[in-house]
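Escalation from tier 1.

The customer reports that the assembly of three entities below gives different structure tokens on two consecutive runs. Tier 1 could not reproduce it. I'm attaching the input and our single run for tier 2 to review.
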Amino acid sequence: MSRLLCRCLALVLVAPAARSEGPRELTVYAAASLREAFAELGKAFERDHPQTKVVFSLAGSQELRTQIEHGAPADVFASADWKHMQALVAAKLASGPRNFVRNEPVVVVPKGNPAGLRTLADLPRAKRIVVGAPEVPIGAYTLQILDAASKRYGAAFGAAVEAHVVSREPNVRQVISKVALGEADAAIVYRTDALVSKGGIEVIAIPEDLNVVAEYPVAVLTHAKEAKLALEFVDLLLSPAGQETLGRFGFRPGIGG
Amino acid sequence: MRSRRPGIWDVAQHVASAVLVSFLLLPVAALFLTLSWEDFVAGLRNPILLPALRLSLLTTTSSLGLVVGLGSLLAWRIARRPGRASRWMEAVTQLPAVIPPAVAGVGLLLAFGRRGLLGGFLAEHGMAPAFTTPAVIMAEAFVSAPFFVQAAIAAFRRVDENLLVVARTLGASPFRAFLRVGLPLAAPGLLAGAAMSWARSVGEFGATLLFAGNLTGRTQTLPLAVYAAMESDLRAAQVLSLVMVALAFALLLVLRRLGPGVTWPGPEVRVA
Amino acid sequence: MLELRITRRIGPLDLRIDLSMGSETLLVAGPNGAGKSSLLRLLLGVVRPDAGRIALNGDVLFDADLEIDVPPEERALAYVPQDYALFPHLDVLRNATFGLAALDRRERVRRAAAWLERLGAGHLLARYPAVLSGGERQRVALARALARTPRALLLDEPFASLDPVARQELRASLAGWLREWRLPALVVSHDPADAALADRIAVIERGRLVQQGTLEELRRAPGTGFVAGLIESAPPAGAR
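Tier 1 run:
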């Protein structure tokens, strides 16, 4: 009886190691704003690489960076700002990051514009403003934009906006969902989020001289299990075909160092 | 005489116990063991800690008061007036316990949000609960109510009907019978239920994040603060976590002191 | 003077009782499930009759036609259920004072203590019900009920949970007390020996009152098999 038990135990322990040759998996950690664009690029990649499956984990860049720092098994990291990428590079968890797109922050309001905003200067009129948390790239960009705007419109602008912030969300999609639900009167998100949103919002552009350009770097992670596939995915992002796809979703071209 | 050697059943018990107890203990121990004293002190200084602690204590006390106050009456009704209505109400009170918290958050938004079912009505009366401290209390009350109400129903059911009948014949109104007989006898069960409910509301995260948002001092409770701190200052997250563990320990201590003491003298009336 | 004429359907049981009694002790006997305990609950106002009338000393406690239904707390009826239902979280004194909330504190304690003393439980004031014997609990329950000077006394199987010695002792005491108090008293019991307590006996079978009268009257002309069996086991005439 105990012999049988030992044999069963051995099987259970050994079985996972004896994995059969199945499809390979590429794990991509990407900023939440890249959801739809990457879904399409993932399918294109799978078409070109039979027997390969691309798996995405989408969240605020700060959350993904923390997970990678704690050993999350990712192959590629695409961040919505350089701060989190540089932290990983410094920790020798990523190398050779390259900028692959840019994005434009915009102000969004619920359909019907209940607060009646016409420009960024009107922002204090919104009674409920939702922004990204400071650690989230969009949150950091928002702080920069508001800082610049305060210099132009006066300190009262900044104070009023700050007083009307009701929530700092952990990623940009949570921010825009509050606007779409009508719970927030205004928010700052990426133009690409506004484009994929299924109605319920209107866009107000931010003056170019006050706006920041969101730069998105991508890199292969040091401990990637599928390093070769990872490099090929990054190549896809940087290729004309990849750039065209990203452009269709509203991203700006942004290949750089 | 055959000596008793440990059989496979004994071994299985020992192994299972060792594995599970270690598994449950390790994450909590890790919170302590991986934090140096300097890091602890540094984390204590993080500005989100005190507001989060204050807010959590305020909101969980409020939601507990709401749940216990209303829940006792509901539980009494369900326990003492069996019937179809009571069965249905009991089922409804069990729902939040099986709904994922994030789903609860969405539901709360769709019910009480500006564009929700009651949005218009609330707006007319100058109320917009989402993103406010009351929203935190609502989210906490929603997810924690089942824990108290279920325990209260069970405790009230255990009260011998004869005692209540006799109380009535001795001149007690239905309310006085509840207050002087039903409530004291159910008290241990009610307290245990309240403790469970409070523990659940302290740890509430998903529904709070969605319905109340995340703003230091107004809606960022301890769990939300831990989540936010995780991504910027791990030490602060650890310290916040330790604060929550301390709260949990305190609760356990209180419960254990109450437990054996709150039985009426005599074995036959020990309440579970 | 208690007049009771009620009908009530309880599950499979169709209860239809019509009886009246003066300041006497009535033994309500019958097989299990006959409806004896239900009768008490209807009388107490805990269960509502489908139709009928209940009046005590001229006061109408229930009248279906006139839509009168006095709640239990206002009927001034004393009730001691089987197992006595002492409040386990209160000591003996506070159990006894429970029904005296209308009085001021000193009077409450005085009266309750007096009754407890009278029934032989005066030395138990600070004890809790859980540590009392069956006989002691019986006395406390009676004292609690009587401290309110009720207009009638309802006892459900008063000796069922006592050992034979305690049973005999208590039965003798109770017989004496009942004679002393001159209250209408209904004693529900399936034990024929309890006939010794009663002035009259009412037999209920399957929800109907099949016979009532003194022990002698029942003995002379037993109406049903159960009554006959009851007579056989009852103490001989004059045992009271």
